[in-house]
Amino acid sequence: MKAYYVALCTVLVLLVAAPKVSMAVTCNPSELSPCVSAITSSAPPSKLCCSKIKEQRPCLCQYLKNPNLKKFVNNPNARKVANTCGTPFPKC
């Protein structure tokens, strides 16, 4: 269980440290933190999670290009959460 929390903290640190992209939306991967429980378990995504995924959708391709973020953003659970929220991943 301790390893799980260490991994989760590592993900959040990487998300905060990711570079930002200049767009209409401010790309900030830490904005997706409300989705952590849905991505790491079988819990359904919250309304806040879905709202953040929709908000950050224009940034997902940038996150996928970042080697520190790709393994967390490009996993089946993350895609499942996005699809459940009605926000499929863009084709990058």
Features:
globular, 58% helix, mainly alpha
Quick take:
It contains six helices and no strands. With 92 residues, it is mainly alpha-helical. The protein is globular.
What does this structure look like?
The chain has 92 residues and is mainly alpha-helical. It contains six helices and no strands.
SSE arrangement:
Layout (H helix, E strand, L loop, with lengths): L1 H16 L18 H5 L6 H10 L3 H6 L1 H7 L2 H9 L8
**Strand portion, in percent?**
under 5%
State the major sheet. Answer: none
Output the helix-strand order.
Answer: HHHHHH
The total of beta strands comes to 0
- Per DSSP, the total helix count is 6
Mean pLDDT reading: 81
- Model regions low in confidence, pLDDT < 50 over at least 5 residues: 3-17, 19-23
3D shape: globular
How does the helix and strand content classify structurally?
mainly alpha
- The rounded Rg comes to 12 Å
What percentage of residues falls in helices of 4 or more residues? 55-70%
